[in-house]
């Protein structure tokens, strides 16, 4: 029987699963802080309060599904000793930033499902919202670049070791 700790890390899967968790976490943060605590908007503000609350409930359900599924998949990678932590962190930041940017550009501006806040000058809010998204994405890209570099170094080291053994 082979040692499970010798299994190669699943880099892509680690990143994608953590991106799902990042999306769920950012959706939860948005829904809890801006929809519930501050009550600045609902997911869909173009109808009655009841429809707005229903849309918030659907968003909350989707975020919970993303979080639960993502953590089950992440723990499975960990159990099988194939989790690539740096790739996972990169995916988490990329997922969170992508959700934030999608919400800020698509939901707020293109579809006009809701705005960040009503009755105020929106530009500072939009800049902060989308700026935070870009910052999260830049952190994710930085971590992904680092993860690829570390993986390339490991591959090079392994190739040198195999070459040395064959000589």
Helices and strands in order:
Elements: H1 11-37, H2 49-79, H3 85-110, H4 123-166
Helix pairs in contact: 1-2, 1-3, 3-4
How would you explain this protein's 3D organization?
The chain is mainly alpha-helical and 167 residues long. The protein has one domain (10-166). The chain is built from 4 helices and no strands. It has helices spanning 11-37, 49-79, 85-110, 123-166. Helix 3 packs antiparallel against helix 4 (123-166). The longest helix is centred in the last third of the chain and has 44 residues, at 123-166. The radius of gyration is 20 Å and the shape is elongated. The mean pLDDT is 91.
List keywords for this structure.
167 residues, mainly alpha, 4 helices, 77% helix
**Sheet/helix structural class:** mainly alpha
Q: State mean pLDDT (0 to 100 scale).
A: 91
Could you name the ranges where pLDDT drops below 50 across 5 or more consecutive residues? none
Q: How large a portion of the residues is in β-strands, by DSSP E?
A: under 5%
Q: Give the total of domains.
A: 1
Q: Largest sheet, if any?
A: none
Tell the overall outline: elongated
The tally of helices reads 4
Give the helix proportion (percent range): over 70%
Summary, kept brief:
With 167 residues, this protein is mainly alpha-helical. It is built from four helices and no strands. The protein has one domain (10-166).
């Amino acid at each position: 029987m082979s040692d499970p700790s010798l299994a190669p890390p699943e880099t892509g899967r680690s990143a994608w699963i953590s991106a799902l968790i990042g999306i769920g976490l950012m959706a939860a943060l948005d829904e809890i802080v801006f929809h519930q605590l501050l009550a600045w908007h609902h997911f869909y503000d173009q109808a009655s309060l009841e429809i707005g609350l229903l849309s918030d409930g659907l968003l909350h359900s989707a975020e919970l599904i993303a979080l639960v599924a993502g953590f089950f998949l992440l723990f499975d990678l960990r159990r099988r000793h194939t989790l690539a932590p740096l790739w996972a962190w990169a995916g988490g930041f990329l997922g969170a930033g992508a959700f934030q940017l999608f919400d800020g550009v698509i939901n707020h501006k293109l579809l006009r499902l809701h705005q960040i806040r009503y009755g105020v000058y929106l530009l500072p809010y939009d800049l902060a919202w989308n700026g935070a998204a870009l910052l999260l994405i830049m952190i994710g890209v930085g971590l992904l670049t680092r993860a690829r570099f570390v993986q390339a170094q490991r591959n090079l080291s392994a190739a040198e070791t195999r070459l040395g053994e064959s000589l």
